[in-house]
Amino acid sequence: MSNFHHFILIIFIAIVLSNCKNPANGSKDEVQTEPEWVSLFNGVDLTGWQVKIKDQPLGLNWKNTFIVVDSTLSVDYSAYENFDDSFGHIFYKNSYSNYRLKLQYRFTGEQLEGGENWANKNSGVMIHCQSPETMELDQSFPVCLEVQLLGGLTENEPRSTGNLCTPGTHVVMDNKIVTTHCIDSNSDTYYGSEWIDLELVVRNDSIISHFIDGKKVIEYSKPVIGGDHNTQIDKDGTPLKEGYISLQSESHPVAFKNIMLLEL
Fold first, then answer.
1. Which residue among 35, 40, 68, 248 is least crowded, i.e. fewest CB within 10 A of its CB?
2. What does the pLDDT look like over 202-235, one tens digit per residue?
3. Is pLDDT at 110 greater than 60 in this prediction?
4. What beta strand segments (E) does the chain contain?
5. How far apart are CA 176 and CA 174, in angstroms?
6. Nearest-5° Cα angle at 66, 170 to 47
7. Rg (CA), the chain
8. Which residues of 242-264 are buried (b: 16+ CB within 10 A; e: fewer)?
9. What is the pLDDT of residue 31?
10. Cross-strand pairs, 91
11. pLDDT at residue 22 is higher than 50
12. Does residue 187 contact residue 160 with C-beta atoms inside 8 Å?
């Protein structure tokens, strides 16, 4: 080997050894890690979650509406005699913007007396929510994007799930602003009490996608404040770039489990 080639070999080895000691884009003390899925629900209690029920003060879990049963976060009406418009939500403590959220849900039991006909086998996962602290005492729903969860009621009558409802918001679909309150997905209908996989991909105020059992069932973009909402929220047309995640109590018992989030 010539002296020149020997010199080049030494330089190459030195570069390789230097890269091994020093991770790319950082000092030798830095470790590059991939984002990880984190659990939002510990399966034991409601740590990290806060309840807001219509006509009740923030933080009061009225009649123990939200409880933990067999490692599930469940909506329970055993202490109720009548629903009486007691719409409720349980909020996770952090606000998020870009993330994937996945969980499993199922409807259980029978609808509570006094619930609306449309609320039979009806619940929701609310994303990009206003903070619970800004909700009015008598406010039924937070300003948000609602991933509406529905169960089939009559065999062979389709009733999609993973739909989109828009309390106090508007979105864009097919390059048009949509002001319709609820938009059906193209999911299958689930008539029983089986566990159903829900996954959401949320990209700030860009594209948001809903998946049911691994199938994309609806997609939309550019959510903004719009329509009916309380006075503490930004004016109409304000982009909805982030917000809280909440689970809904709407008169039919429902259970949630394996609530996991991956920040993007």
1. 35
2. 999 999 999 999 999 999 999 999 988 766 777 8
3. yes
4. 38-39, 49-53, 66-69, 72-75, 88-96, 98-107, 122-129, 145-150, 163-165, 169-173, 176-178, 182-183, 196-203, 207-212, 215-225, 243-249, 254-263
5. 5
6. 95
7. 23
8. bbbbbbbbbbbbbbbbbbbbeee
9. 57
10. 50, 246
11. no
12. yes
Report CA dihedral (194, 40, 37, 217) to the nearest 10 degrees.
40
Specify the amino acid at residue 81. Answer: E
User: 98 - beta bridge partners?
Assistant: 203
Say yes or no: domain 37-263 is CATH 2.60.120.560: yes
Measure the CA–CA gap between 66 and 166, rounded to whole angstroms: 23
Q: What is the reported pLDDT for 181? A: 92
Phi then psi dihedrals of residue 11, to 5 deg:
-60, -45
User: Per the structure block, which two tokens stand in for 62?
Assistant: 């009225």
Residue type, 46: L
Selection from 140, 135, 136 nearest residue 116 by Cα: 140
Instruction: State the pLDDT confidence band at 165, using cuts at 50, 70 and 90.
Output: very high
Each domain of the chain, given as residue ranges in start order, spans 1-33, 37-263
